[in-house]
Amino acid sequence: MEARTRRRVRDPAATRETILDAACNLLAKDGLEGVSLSAVAHLAEVNRGTAYQHFETREKLIEATIEWVSDKMFRAVFGDPATLGERRVEEVDVSALTDRLTEFAMENPEIGRVWLQQVLASPDPSQDAFWREYCGSLRRFAATSLAEPGIDAEVMSVINLAGVFFWPVFARAHAADEGERSELTRRYTHEILRLSMYGTMSAKAFPDVAELLSKDFVKD
């Protein structure tokens, strides 16, 4: 009696995840120019027809991949978005959150930079889940008595996120072992926290700058 050939059980959700993972790898390796549905299908080991069933165009695939990266980063830094709700900034462990963001950047520097560029270049960055929570958290923090006056949440968000995704490039994190990456994470977290807490300039030593900032604050 001939053995029956088993049909492979289709799992659309798993296939979509595989395609997005492949697209993410191509984005990290080759940038936007390296992403096509054919190349992604080849890397994901699915046929092109299957890839087109999930994503009708290259643009929709890239958009979905950026959203996928944002979700991964959100979960790594903030936790499950489905159960998070709006966090009270007074209860946030700033040091631990900065550590988690830096660790994610150390492990995913290329795709992190692609994500940031796409989000900042979009007409409305607040449509991105991670940006909305990160910038929103800074904005809520700036409105509390915990913060120094005059914080521009958007500018601070861009500075922090650009720094965290370019630090691994400068530090050659790709060539570092686990222990070295841990030390690089510690250094970056320490400096961001130190800068946030104390800044770099003494108002007494730079009275003209202090006066300028004071006028800008009054204007705002």
Set out the fold topology.
Layout: H1 12-30, H2 37-44, H3 48-54, H4 58-77, H5 81-84, H6 94-107, H7 109-121, H8 129-142, H9 153-170, H10 178-198, H11 207-219
Helix pairs in contact: 1-2, 1-4, 1-7, 2-3, 4-8, 6-9, 6-10, 7-9, 8-9
Describe this structure in words.
The protein has 220 residues and is mainly alpha-helical. The protein folds into two domains: 10-56, Orthogonal Bundle (Arc Repressor Mutant, subunit A); 61-219, Tetracycline Repressor, domain 2. Helix content is 69%, strand content 0%. It contains eleven helices and no strands. It has helices spanning 12-30, 37-44, 48-54, 58-77, 81-84, 94-107, 109-121, 129-142, 153-170, 178-198, 207-219. Helix 1 crosses helix 7, helix 2 packs across helix 3 (48-54) and helix 4 packs across helix 8 (129-142). The chain is elongated and about 65 Å long. Mean pLDDT is 87; it is low at 1-9.
H and E string: HHHHHHHHHHH
In terms of DSSP E residues, the strand content is under 5%
Specify the CATH architecture of the largest domain.
Orthogonal Bundle
Report helical residue fraction: 55-70%
Global geometry:
elongated
Low-pLDDT windows of residues? 1-9
Number of distinct beta strands: 0
User: What does the radius of gyration come to?
Assistant: 22 Å
Helix segment tally: 11
Q: Output the structural class.
A: mainly alpha
For the sheet with most strands, the description reads: none
Mean pLDDT: 87
**Which CATH class of the largest domain applies here?**
Mainly Alpha
Q: Give the total of domains.
A: 2
Distance between the termini: 84 Å
CATH topology descriptor of the largest domain: Tetracycline Repressor, domain 2
